[in-house]
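The instructor's notes for this session suggest beginning with a concrete chain rather than abstract definitions. Hand out the sequence below and ask the class to guess, before any prediction is shown, which regions might be ordered.
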Amino acid sequence: MAKQPMLKFVQIERDMPQKRDASVRKEDFNEIYAEYAAAKAEEQASRCSQCGVPYCQSHCPLHNNIPDWLRLTATGRLEEAYAASQATNTFPEICGRICPQDRLCEGNCVIEQSGHGTVTIGSVEKYITDTAWENGWVKPAAPLAERSESVGIIGGGPGGLAAADMLRKAGVQVTVYDRYDRAGGLLMYGIPSFKLEKDVVERRNKLLADGGVTFKLNCNVGEDITFEEIRSKHNAVIIATGVYKSRDLAMPGSGSEGIVKAIDFLCASNKKSFGDEVAEFDNGSLNAEGKKVVVIGGGDTAMDCVRTSIRQGATSVKCLYRRDRANMPGSQRETQNAEEEGVVFEWLSAPKGFTDEGGKVAGVMVQKMRLGQPDASGRQAPEVIEGADYVEEADLVIKALGFEPEQLPALWNQPELPVTRWGTVKAAFKTGATDLDGVYAVGDIVRGASLVVWAIKDGRDCAEAILETFNRKTALAAE
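After discussion, reveal the predicted structure:
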């Protein structure tokens, strides 16, 4: 009888790829995790229990065939593992790097709940696809036949690019309109390189272009081209703009110089890494070097800001969050990485204003909190502890409070574009169809600020719905 290649979680312990020492990695913007060697990837994949009800798969927004490609990896069948992985995920190497696996697939691994430590799903996923790129298994779209229909996609982030990939593979003519000079959205400009090196995104963009996707960059809808012009050029339009409007703080001193938005800070850092001219970075306004930095917020964007500040050479970095560690929305893994790199977390702390010297921020007025009764979401609501205020010194304050949608009906002169009371575009569940004929919407502009993996799912689902509509119209015309 052949030796059982799986179910080795009892004999083999969980083992993540080696992580570079914090004292070394905080000096650069390179990714912090090494790549698995083939033997280690096979070993860790073999820990999968091949359970009858794979909660890892059901808790993945894309419902990736995780047990299947773990078994294929464990038995050395990597090209088949890649085929299984990319069948449900347009960007597996990106999800393997940036998905919060501790909250999704790995957080629901059956063997972890039995006390054996989760399978390292994300690291194996990354290894599979990086190996596929190295071996030339990743190919540009080569549709069996070209179609006459065309789709315009507004926004080159993960949702828009996932839809572009699916549509182009079916032979649809696809044009992506993006306001930036590089496609990728927050994958390119929002997420730091120590989590997602930019050549990983750039090679995907090149693959899409090589497969026939047309990119119109530096194209701001509403200024360089109207929404109506885009609609007139295409059989369908997908709105995939994401949400870029930063939530703000209206409190004393909030207009002081040195109080900046997270998206501006992260974009400046990423643009600088490309070698671009970034005046706000060079003059110090969006550069943490030599400064006492305070980041306000507890999500993944806040973690990106504190860890970027460390790498830029801040003298100190503190993160204020109004709840405790157990209730923060960001990844626990990212919080641990930040602490290892020297970030200090001030839990149960919230700003009430800012002090300044000559118009420049000098500190954050902090009020200490305690957790009271649960709020409407079920989380314990923070309450102010009277008389426990203090001032946290700061030369640079970064607001990482989340994002809201831009007012697209006004920006695009489209008052009939249906939006919710939160400003997100109203679109049908699963298909992304709006009330405007031939207009769809996907990703954060529909959901609000969410995860990359959800945007990918929305883009793929929307592409499928558009193809069904095209096929139905073709069939009716042929009758």
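Then share the key points. DSSP finds 19 helices and 16 strands in the chain. The CA atoms of residues 180 and 218 lie 5 Å apart.
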